[in-house]
Design a protein that fits this description.
It is built from six helices and eight strands. Helices cover about 25% and strands about 20% of the residues.
Amino acid sequence: MGLNYSLGITFIKEKDADVCSKEFFNQKIVLPDGNLAELFSYVSEHADNQKMQEKLYVLSVSVNGLGNVDIDLRLFETSNFYTIRDFFYQYLRDLKKDFEFAHFELEAADYLMCAEEMTEDIAFLVKNLSVADEGAQKVTGINPSEFLSKRYIDGIIIPFKNYRKLKNAQSEFQIFKPNYYWLPLKEFKFSK
């Protein structure tokens, strides 16, 4: 994902990933000022499929301008950024298909998405917080303290079967929806 903020959802069934990807075609997010943020999505096989027992498929949904190509600085403003995040997390709350992992931009997310044993990874990220997002600063030229850090686990959502595997970090999670657990950021609040 590089310097792009995006929603990533990992599925076991390729068909589920494809169906969800189509739901984002021609989808737009209405921002607080009435402007629209355009989305684009694609599905790919997980990079580590050859190593894993079951294949995984990753749906990536990005927002035009919320990255290092054709940058739209308005999208990095707090109210717009949270509106976009709220939209994605509401989508996950309403999603009826099973998924293995979801997050809205996370440094090292590609590694964590398929981790057989996430306990040490999550414990490391929970205790090693960054105070600012230098990547966003490089893209926008804005002071990095204006952005949430991509080193935070940014709203990671996992199913109960993966939550059960966690030993040290379970207390950091809360129920997101039935059978799914969420590791929220203090700064993250649903706008509705």
